Amino acid sequence: MSTNLLPNDLPNAGVPGPIPEDFDFDPFVSPPAFVSRFELPLMARIAANYATEAANNASIAQTIAVKHTPVPRPVDLDIGPPLKPLFGYSQTEFNELVASEQVCQSLAPLPVGLVRNIAKERANLKAAADSQRLAEKAKEKEASSVRNKLLGSMRLTNPTVRAVRALFGHS
User: Fold this and answer.
1) Distance between CA atoms of residues 91 and 102, nearest Å
2) Domain of life here (predicted)?
3) Rounded alpha-carbon distances, angstroms, from residue 156 to 63, 69, 127, 144
4) Other beta carbons less than 10 A from residue 18's beta carbon
5) pTM of the full predicted structure?
6) SS3 24
7) Among the listed ranges 43-52, 77-86, 109-118, 130-139, which one has the minimum average pLDDT value?
8) pLDDT tens figures, 20-48
């Protein structure tokens, strides 16, 4: 977006209306990078992100609607307002949210993006735990199998038992 607007420029697009056919919409639908302001309490950042996410989604929807408006577009048709950055979370805060459903509920409503990241991390942790559990079971089964084979081979190859059986004709 241009900071030096001319009197006829659309405020959000920064160009004179109507928006041209070759206008680059991509920068107006790509969210900006997260802002690291960890001095703000977690609850305040989550509440701000919830509101910002809703505003950004509405802006993106408006921009996409303009993008798909047939050319020539109306002179006063403008894209959505500039997207605002979301506040970031520390790894410790994120881990706490992943580990505790109760903490998530106490801070609700959570931004959809955060909920999706928490769900993804919980699924990854569950898959890793399941994989580790299966590996441990397989290792235990292997150890048990080796133990049984070893015990069986010792019984069959014991020379004393073989000699006694040979002497007395037991099979």
Assistant:
1) 18
2) Eukaryota
3) 80, 85, 43, 18
4) 19
5) 0.73
6) coil
7) 130-139
8) 999 999 999 999 999 999 999 999 999 99
